[in-house]
Design a protein that fits this description.
The protein has helices at residues 3-6, 10-33, 69-79, 89-94, 99-110; strands at 38-45, 49-56, 61-66, 82-83. Helices cover 51% and strands 21% of the residues. It is an alpha+beta fold. The protein has a 4-stranded mixed beta sheet with strand order 3-2-1-4, with helices on one face. The chain is globular and about 45 Å long. Helix 2 packs across helix 3.
């Protein structure tokens, strides 16, 4: 057996797992603060990052960025987030927006 066959690629996997656990802590904390559970979706942003959008049981929403799709999915899994295929339908209907979001959306539309 050569040394290449006996070497283990544990470092990259261990690093990804640590990142997923760190992100999962934030996701779990969000879920606890917003009704005890959360639903979400993991989506690519750019070529190297992933955005995890979560919606709490109370309708509050937030997001976290992960360095890869695999890390994002693993973080959501560790946090107990119910994942959806896309941010439409049932998941989108759970989101509650307030005056801040409406003002911000209007500002974007108006150019401000």
């Amino acid at each position: 057996m050569s040394s290449a066959e006996t070497a283990t690629p544990a470092a990259p996997d261990a690093r990804a797992e640590r990142r997923a656990k760190r992100i999962a802590k934030n996701l779990s904390s969000f879920a606890e603060q917003h009704g005890g559970s959360a639903d979400g979706v993991v989506e690519y942003i750019g070529g190297v990052a992933t955005r995890i959008v979560v919606v709490g049981a109370d309708g509050a929403w937030g997001d976290q960025v992960a360095p890869s799709y695999a890390v994002g999915r693993r973080a959501a899994e560790l946090a107990g987030i119910t994942l959806h295929d896309d941010f439409e339908g049932e998941l989108a209907l759970k989101v509650k927006t307030g005056p801040y979001e409406w003002k911000r959306m209007a500002g974007i539309q108006i150019g401000g």
